[in-house]
Amino acid sequence: MNSGNEILLSITPETNEDYENFRFLTESAFEGFPINLRKKLLFCITELIQNNYIHNRGNKSEIMVYRTNKQVIIESKQEVSKDNYLKIEKQVQQINNMDISALEELKINNIKESSEKKQVSPGNGLLTCRIKSGNLISININSNTNPEKTGISIFVKTDI
Amino acid sequence: MEKIIKAGTKTPEVVADIETGNILIKGVIIPENPVIFFSELEALLSECNKSSGSLRLNIDLEYFNTGAARYLYEMFKNLHNYQEAAVNWFYEPDDEDIYESGVEFRDLSGIDFNIIAKN
């Protein structure tokens, strides 16, 4: 994050208090935005927070939101296992290589398939972030010193 | 007679008129595990239908998570099992995400589905 950026929100979803209140924290952080942008941000940040809470519970995580002149950036910082990192990286690459209409089709297929297979979640979290933001998802490695875990940041950038 | 499912921090309020079959679902649907909320809702739909013989779902959502999308899809698909069912899907005029979700659910469900801009 550049020093000139305005921080809108910083929460740590692994703490129960922040997780239980995340709806009010996020809605309040995006209150001043036009409805179209606000809804996109709420759809995306909800997926990132709950992805972390459900699939990465117990590991360090932080969600930061900041605003540049042109974009609102949601950064999901988390520590993940090496295997998990490789899975996330592969998924991000696949999503970024598809155009929006192909992603919309994939999203619908995932919903239908998860219904047929009786899975709780269709696994559309990152895909939804890519569709709603309209931009590519970025993933960075922040730290790689722990032999078992990798510190990463996932960035979802939405144009203002 | 009215039956109500109270809104939670991650679930919407549901107000059902058992005699007429009119049901309002209003708020957000973002639970980690949507099974509990949707089971309760399905039971209410069934009770309404038994009593009134028809269902009219009025859905006024702010946003929902991808887990809820799967259960909304199933709820709309299951409406085919009822003799008479229709959906009114409401959206704020500038809210293209909720509008587009309505279009997707309408196309997927194939039921009587009205997408209505709120005043």
Protein described:
The complex is a heterodimer of chains A (160) and B (119). Chain A has helices spanning 16-20, 22-29, 35-55, 82-96, 100-116, 125-133; strands spanning 6-11, 61-67, 71-81, 138-143, 149-159. In chain A, 47% of the residues lie in helices and 26% in strands. The radius of gyration of chain A is 15 Å and the shape is globular. Chain A has a single domain (6-159), classed as Histidine kinase-like ATPase, C-terminal domain (Heat Shock Protein 90, 2-Layer Sandwich). By secondary structure, chain B is an alpha/beta fold. Chain B has one domain (2-117): Transcription Regulator spoIIAA, CATH 3.30.750. Chain B has a six-stranded mixed beta sheet, with helices on one face. In chain B, α2 links the parallel β4 (55-64) and β5 (85-91). Chain B is globular and about 35 Å long. The model of chain B has no long low-confidence stretch (mean pLDDT 95). Classes of the chains: A alpha+beta (160), B alpha/beta (119).
Concise summary:
In chain A, 47% of the residues lie in helices and 26% in strands. Chain A is α+β, with helices and mostly antiparallel strands and 160 residues long. Chain A has a single domain (6-159), classed as Histidine kinase-like ATPase, C-terminal domain (Heat Shock Protein 90), CATH 3.30.565.
